[in-house]
Amino acid sequence: MWQKLASIILKWRIPLLIILFAITGVMGYFASKVQMSYEFTSAIPSDNPKLQEYQQFRKTFGEDGNTLVIGIESPKFFNKDFFNGYAAMGAEIAKLPGVENVLSTPMAIDLVKKVTDTSEEGGSGKLVVEPIFNYPVASQAEMDSMAARFHNLPFYQGLLYNSEKGAYLMAVRINREILASPKRTKVVNDILDKVHLFEKAQQTELKYSGLPLIRTVMATKVQEEIKFFLLLSIVLTGVILLVFFRSISAVVFSIVVVLIGVVWSTGTLQLMGYKITLLTGLIPPLVVVIGIPNCVYFLNKYHSEYLLHGNKTRALVRMVERMGIVTLFTNLTAAIGFGVFYFTKSSILKEFGLVAGVNLMAIFMISLIFIPAVFSFLPPPNSKHTSYLDSKNLNRILEMLSNMVVKHRGWVYGISIAAVVVSAIGMTRLNAEGYIVDDLPHSDKIYTDLKWFEHNFKGVMPLEIVVDTKKKNGVVSLSTLENIDLLTQELGTHPEFGRPLSVAEGIKFARQAYYDGDSTAYIVPNSFDIAFLAPYLRMKGDGNSQFAKLVTTFMDSTRQKARISINMADIGSRRLPMLLDSLRPKVDEIFDSTKYKVTFTGTSITFLEGSKFIINSLRDSLILAFIMIFGCMIYLFRSWRIVFMSIVTNLIPLVITAGVMGWMGIRMKPSTVLVFSIALGITIDVTIRFLVNFKQELPRQNDDISATVHKTIHETGLSIIYTSLILTAGFLVFALSNFDGTKSLGYLTSLTLILAMFTNLTILPAMLLWMEKALLKKAMKDQDPVLDAFSQNDEEEKPEDHR
Predict the structure, then answer these.
(1) CA-based torsion, 491, 496, 499, 500: positive or negative
(2) For a Cys-Cys bond, which of 102, 228, 309, 434 suits 94, CB 3.0-4.6 Å?
């Protein structure tokens, strides 16, 4: 079959190349249309209860994660000129397209009771909204008076300022449609431009954070890194190929193969209606890294065959005949390692798995057609191009490995067992935990500024508590307000939570105004003064009053549900559920479950729930990949012994890598769990390559397993070392990432690949010798039909086969 396929490729090489480039042109068009994704809830399946609760919250109250915060800590904040500049900055930001509103100290309001001729619902006047600061402030005395009035309002303490730290906060609310589009980058950059102008004018530094900023910065860095990794991986693999093959044509056309694969992979995203995410952004560099070994396998066989008989056409046919099925199954196992993610319930993993799996098979087809077709037009390789086959240094290493396997198998087993035991102990130290800013390095300004907000305002990550009273107007009852206030006080005892904001806080603000601004009156109203304040709870927030907007923001239209909004620290996916579980008994104590339903939701919960879900999905997909890959091994070799050896050989590198993670304190998170599925799909390729060559060599060595193992180490060892080094170098590129998770993916995968190279050149041949008698008996039997493809004899082909 493969010999016939080789003849077809060479016979129809020109039409096949034209078709290949035509498809690439079409895919290139679609690739130019692909966009970035700005959606961060796609990690969770749509039927997840927490996601459904969050979607219901957004439907009722709107977006919760669309606030960018700007912080400042300065002793001269209430200096007249400094304050005027700060106020001007906020006013300029408020005018920007896409900015819905700005909440800051200069824009703070106060409620003032105005005496009227007629009382309203038992009251003696009405409350009107007044700005606290008249901008621009004319004198320092006026400034000091306004500041004193501001500090007399407990409503703003912990919300807009921290009196103990001298820190002040500005909250910029951005339109949710803008945040879900590419326009978000411009809006965020425009805001930061205004901030930078103020910083330059006042010679000070401001802090900025919030999910809109964090997400935009991460999306921008993903775009930049895709281009950087792609270029660097191509340059690096090109240099390594040049060192190995000493042939410009081998380097250039190998790079052309993977560039075609890159175009196809990016075009596939657009064709399938997907966008570039932190995961799918890794696919183009992965295509380069994994596609290059295809070229190495093909060219290595082409050169070795040509060196044997000097016939270029015959060498190309034998290259396809010998390496076609091997490369097919190595790409298939790699595709399985990625493709199993499609069977998870996570949209982001489904997209990554499907696109990666499809394009790893596509890169096999591209290399199978392109390399023999193009090299049939080129001159045959000369001695310089094939000199790497006789590398003395590499042959010396291979001879050393062969002697180790044959003469010191006990040491091989002993060292391996010791490494596995130490790694198993390290695995017990593994900790699965994710953070919202997990991948940002601790030196990054986004991370350091986030910690500043956590230190001064307890954090900026949104958490929402929805109180459903189960009846219309239930929120405005005095008992509900008292219960909400009790829960607010309980939340205040936890250092992880910032200042809670709710309808109860608004009505306490109104009560203080009712008692002529007395700060001690900032409490939940009693039955006496609720009659006067009730109208302020029933306002519709039609735009006539900022206070009306404030109150109605925390109730639904029927006043059945109330929200309590809290900013909190980024405490991680492990601590957050524990914290919420510890709150639940107090919540149940405050709110009678027969009358109320209290739900914890918000971006913080859904984001960390997504992180936890991805980790679990990756674990499950790894198990599925393991089953499917070794199912392929059973189909290929029809021997439980071979499958057992393959499992042991490929399990040891994974166990050692997991142990290293445990001992080094590297947490289990999506990027690090991803290592194991990727590495398994790639390292099994080496095993297949070794075992196929072993099976092909066994008859030629008169079924002498010792001689066959020695010969196989020398024949396959060269290409195994070359491809392992290329793969390792390719994945090490990711270690240059700005994201810690991508860095971990890079060096942990590289470590696993290097370990797999050694286990496949030591443990696997050692086990083949250990099972020598059983394998010899098996080899005496008739070949399986599938294995016949691997066991082609070396008879001369007929002349017509190579026309």
Answers:
(1) negative
(2) 102
User: What's the total number of domains in the chain?
Assistant: 1
Burial 637-648 (b: 16+ CB within 10 A, else e): bbbeebbebbbe
Other beta carbons less than 10 A from residue 74's beta carbon: 16
What is the distance between the alpha carbons of residues 744 and 669, in angstroms, rounded to a whole number?
10
- CA 384 to the chain's CA centroid: 44
Residues 6+ away with beta carbon under 8 Å from 384: 246, 247
Query: Shortest CA distance to 240 belongs to which of 750, 751, 745, 727?
Result: 727
Distance (Å, whole) CA 629 – CA 501: 53
| Helix/strand/coil for 596 | coil
Whether pLDDT at 802 is above 60: no
Residue 394, pLDDT above cutoff 80: no
Does 199 reside within a domain?
A: no
Residue 414 lies in a domain: yes
d(CA 207, CA 168): 10
Domain CATH for 269: 1.20.1640.10
The neighbour count for residue 798, using CB atoms within 10 Å, is 8
Q: Which helix H or strand E contains 131, and what residues bound it?
A: strand 125-131
DSSP 797: P
Binned at pLDDT 50, 70 and 90, residue 43 comes out as: low
Mean per-residue pLDDT, 655-680 = 82
Residue range 44-81, pLDDT digits in tens: 777 788 888 888 898 888 777 788 999 999 889 999 99
Instruction: Read off the tokens for 252.
Output: 């250039």
> Using an 8 Å Cβ cutoff, are 423 and 659 in contact?
yes
Taking alpha carbons only, the member of 299, 292, 278 closest to residue 236 is 292
Residue with the two structure tokens 């409490």: 523
Tens digits of residue pLDDT in 552-562: 778 888 889 99
Q: How confident is the model at residue 424 (pLDDT cuts 50, 70, 90)?
A: very high
Q: Identify the band that residue 546 occupies on the pLDDT scale cut at 50, 70 and 90.
A: low
**Stronger pLDDT, 6 or 36, i.e. the higher one:** 6
Residue of 463, 445, 428, 672 whose CA lies nearest to 571: 463
Q: Is residue 61 part of a domain?
A: no
Omega before 136 cis (within 30°)? yes
The C-alpha atoms of residue 38 and residue 34 are separated, in whole angstroms, by 13
**Integer angstrom CA distances of residue 234 from 246, 252, 257:** 17, 10, 11
Model confidence, pTM? 0.73
**Domain assignment present for 645:** yes
Instruction: Check pLDDT > 80 for residue 428.
Output: yes
Q: Is 71 helix (H, G, I), strand (E, B) or coil?
A: strand
Task: Summarize pLDDT for 72-118 with one digit per residue, the tens.
Answer: 998 899 999 999 999 999 999 999 999 988 999 999 988 887 765 44
Q: What's the per-residue H, E or C state across 83-99?
A: HHHHHHHHHHHHCCCCE
